[in-house]
Design goal:
Largest sheet: 3 strands, antiparallel
Oligomer: single chain
Helix content: 55-70%
Length: 304
């Protein structure tokens, strides 16, 4: 199904600039072509980038900028340069955009990502914080986690844990525990999914921070009774290098069948019991009276 969908997307792309997202999230460049499309689902996977069209899009984005002077075309060109690992070219481009049109969210966000990929986490943190100030709702309101990741990188390995990154801990027992509400767990689940999809698009195994985030996402899935998803994500955490033995215990829990939600039995008070017994008694008495009256009528008719 995945191969078929990707093939169909390529056919559509070659036929027209219009593109319908068939499976999941996607990003459309300023010139109308897709940069990537994601598979639908709740398991974080790297973006499916349309690598074959990178050079063609760069030329077209350059041409459209010259005609319109719209820096949005250059910004999208910068995205492709980052994906091609042409970091110096991308940096020079975004520095030009910042001077020409200061205060754009996409410039700050892309500069932050770019500096992180170049290994300059201090500058990366500055630009990501700036991007959050410009647009706090960006990236499904998950950029707070990007900030925490960069803070952890600057702090060191002692911060590569859920307590620092997420502000919560799911314990060291076989089954994760939490004081968070279901709503809070789902909010964390959403932020982790988005940030992991982004990071896994650029960072391949092994990576301790990605491994930790995958492990914590799997814990949340287990708490939300999404056992099959939890098992798959624990496996990804191991792939990225998570080395604690607790993973084995959690996988055992994920392999267990999900218990159905127990319905609470209604507690009937003495008053309820007495009132509930009155109803059938009244109905029975009424029925007996009706039957007796009918019998008397029949007897009277026979005597006449």
């Amino acid at each position: 199904m995945k191969k078929f969908c990707l093939l169909l997307a390529i056919v559509l792309l070659s036929a027209s600039k219009s593109f319908a997202c068939l499976n999941g999230e996607h990003y459309i460049l300023k010139n109308g072509y897709p940069l990537f499309e994601d598979y639908d689902g709740e398991i974080p996977e790297p973006h499916n980038f349309y690598v074959f069209s990178f050079e063609k899009n760069i030329k077209e984005l350059d041409s459209l900028y010259k005609k319109t002077k719209d820096v949005a075309y250059l910004s999208d060109k910068g995205l492709i340069l980052i994906l091609q690992k042409k970091y110096k070219d991308a940096l020079a481009l975004y520095q030009f955009i910042e001077k020409a049109a200061p205060g754009r969210y996409s410039t700050a966000a892309n500069m932050g990502t770019l500096y992180e990929l170049m290994g300059d986490n201090e500058k990366a943190l500055y630009w990501i914080r700036k991007s959050v100030e410009i647009n706090p709702k960006s990236h499904e309101e998950s950029e707070w986690l990007h900030v925490k990741i960069l803070e952890a990188k600057l702090k060191g390995k002692s911060a590569y844990n859920g307590a620092f990154l997420l502000g919560t801990d799911f314990g060291a027992q076989a089954m994760p525990i939490t004081k968070l509400t279901t709503t809070e767990l789902r909010r964390l689940e959403k932020s982790l999914f988005f940030q992991l999809t982004e990071r896994m698009s650029f960072i391949k195994p092994k990576d301790p921070i990605v491994a930790t985030l995958l492990f914590e996402l799997a814990n949340i899935k287990l708490l939300l009774k999404k056992n099959a998803q939890a098992k798959e994500i624990y496996a990804k955490a191991l792939e990225y290098g998570y080395d604690s033995k607790i993973v084995d215990e959690r996988i055992i829990q994920a392999n267990k069948p999900v218990s159905p939600v127990k319905q609470k039995k209604k507690i009937i008070s003495k008053e309820d019991k007495s009132s509930s017994s009155i109803v059938p008694a009244v109905v029975g008495a009424t029925t007996a009276v009706i039957i007796l009256a009918a019998a008397r009528r029949r007897r009277g008719n026979k005597e006449k």
